[in-house]
Each structure stands twice: as C-alpha cells, then as structure tokens.
Amino acid sequence: xxxxxxxxxxxxxxxxxxxxxxxxxxxxxxxxxxxxxxxxxxxxxxxxxxxxxxxxxxxxxxxxxxxxxxxxxxxxxxxxxxxxxxxxxxxxxxxxxxxxxxxxxxxxxxxxxxxxxxxxxxxxxxxxxxxxxxxxxxxxxxxxxxxxxxxxxxxxxxxxxxxxxxxxxxxxxxxxxxxxxxxxxxxxxxxxxxxxxxxxxxxxxxxxxxxxxxxxxxxxxxxxxxxxxxxxxxxxxxxxxxxxxxxxxxxxxxxxxxxxxxxxxxxxxxxxxxxxxxxxxxxxxxxxxxxxxxxxxxxxxxxxx
Length: 305
Known about the structure:
This protein is α+β, with helices and mostly antiparallel strands. It has two domains: about 5-130, D-amino Acid Aminotransferase, Chain A, domain 1, CATH 3.30.470.10; about 135-285, D-amino Acid Aminotransferase, subunit A, domain 2 (D-amino Acid Aminotransferase, Chain A, domain 2), CATH 3.20.10.10. It contains eight helices and 16 strands. Strand 3 and strand 4 form a beta hairpin.
C-alpha cells in the first residue's frame, strides 16, 4: 500500500501519518466497527466512484446494529462529500476507498455506545493492478461461515471478518488462492469477502440472501447478467453441485468478477469461463463510463485531476 497525503478523520483532513487512535480503543480489541470498501476509476471525464450510494447506505445499515446512531455526527451526504473531497486532495486518478466507523478509547466495556466516543475515518490509496489475478484456485475451508443466529451476516461489521483471516491462513498454506465457506447446513456460502456464482447449461446460480454477505457487486452482477440475457437464479446448492458446474466465479468490490479455475484441486476447463468473461468485460465498460445505461451507478468526482 502506498501512502497518500491525507486521511479524513472525524471530520478533518489530517496527514496520513497523523491519523492515530489509542491502543485501548474498543474497536481495536473487539471489532466493534462497521466499514465499507469502494473503488473509483479513471475515465475520460475524471474519476468516478462506483455504487457510492449503495455502499454508504450499507455502511449506515451496518452501523445501526452497533447503536452508532446515538453518537454519529455525520450523515450519508457528509460521508459521500468527504469521500469525493479526499479523492481530490490526494490527487490519485484511480484507487481504493476504505470508510470505517468504530468505537474509540474510553472503556473496554461491551456497551461502548454508553461509554466510548465514536470515531470515523476515510482513506484512499492508489489501486495496484499487480494485485489482480485472471483466475484463482479455491479450497474449501474447515471453518464454517457464521450463521444468522450468531451474528448479523448481512452487515459489514469488523468482527465478522475474523473468519476470513483464519480461512486465508489455512488455504494459503495448502497452496491455494481463495477460501470457500460452507454454511452451518452444509450449503455453499461464499468466499472471503466475495460472493460466488456458478454457471450450468447457460443458467447462472448464486446462494440466496440469509447466510451470505449480499455484496454490492453481487447485486449489480445479478442485474447486469439479466440485462445481458442470462437467466439468474438464487438458490442453495451443495459443494458437489458446484463442482459439476460448467464454470464458476467470484465477485466483490476488489476483484469485481474473478473466474475460478479449480476447486479443491478439481480443474475447470477453460480456466476463464466465457460467461464470466462476458460479464467482466461489460462491467469494465460500465465502470469506465462507456455504457450510459448504467450512469446512475457512477458518481463523478471532478474533471480536473
């Protein structure tokens, strides 16, 4: 990660190396925070943020489960404006955006809304294209994704992502790129911060909402695929069903559309399926502002950087 000039921190723009928090912050110890990751892209008319409103709406939805509304000093428009201002101040044409609300320092109580200040921060940095892979090897992890009975699975709460860290540590040691989670009923759930799709006989399938984190990119891909003429079904399916697919792929803000070339050592031929690649190519046009049909998903920052 390359540093930038500024970070937005509790309403002020501070130097990157001055964005500090206390080591006894409640969020650091318990994961009592909510966050979002977004990407913005270079276009002929300046940088555009993809799905800005959708991400911010989910941020505030997630924050509501931690009672952050009691002390939150900023609304959705404030955060949207701060993101755009920060992009301008850092003068990077294309990059990643991380927004986080977290309970700060004053107490390590399990009721931080009563005793702790609420901190808010936004950072942007340049996107590193070398991180992008054309396809990945996936391994089913021994860890089960948390059920809706144990956490809020459709909220981006910081503590929820310890599963992803554990699963990545496991599968990387085994020589794979990405973990695949099953849910508590044995159905395929999702990847690490990524949703999963598979294609069989021209139909696209993806797990339904309930146990998964329903990603912003997932929702958009479902719409985009339907607009492109594909039939898309949300249904539960097992690992053996997934392995019988014609092709399969992951989606997220970071990877966008990422073909899977093997699962648990079983290879898919071709490595990059035609349906995934068609959707990926169309998605690329959209985020580069080359398809006016989807302009509503783009927020133009300005045209002078």
